[in-house]
Amino acid sequence: MQSLILIRWPNEETGGHFRIPGCLVAPNTALALFDGHVEVHLVEATGSPGEYDLRYASNPLFYVGDDLPEIFYDLRHLTLAELAGKYTHSDFYSPRHPQL
User: In the structure, how many helices (H) and strands (E) does the chain have?
Assistant: First the structure.
């Protein structure tokens, strides 16, 4: 089931959508990458292949940065415990001290 998708997040200012990269992990659940963080998103399929509408976004879980190939590899191959060991929890991430 783990496929790469785009999640359409409404842009209230323009009426359009942001397109957020994600990894579909269940029919209506994706791990999304937003602003360098992993979030859990509940999504709904659209008429466009590989695009889903956002229904709910969790708080950020981990700060993962912006190396998309490595991040998507990790999301598809590491357990939650391994992700927690590799990446900083979002609550503890600071741009001034990225390694804390």
Answer: 2, 7
Q: Is the pTM of this model over 0.90?
A: no
| Cα 68 to Cα 4: distance, rounded to the nearest angstrom | 11
As a dihedral over the C-alpha atoms of residue 37, residue 41, residue 45, residue 76, rounded to 10 degrees, the angle is 60
Mean per-residue pLDDT of the chain: 89
Q: How do residues 73-89 score in pLDDT, each as one tens digit?
A: 998 899 989 988 899 88
Write the CA distances from 96 to 7, 61, 90, integer angstroms: 29, 19, 14
**d(Cα 87, Cα 37) in Å, to the nearest integer?**
10
Q: Which of 67, 68, 74 is nearest to 6 (CA)?
A: 68
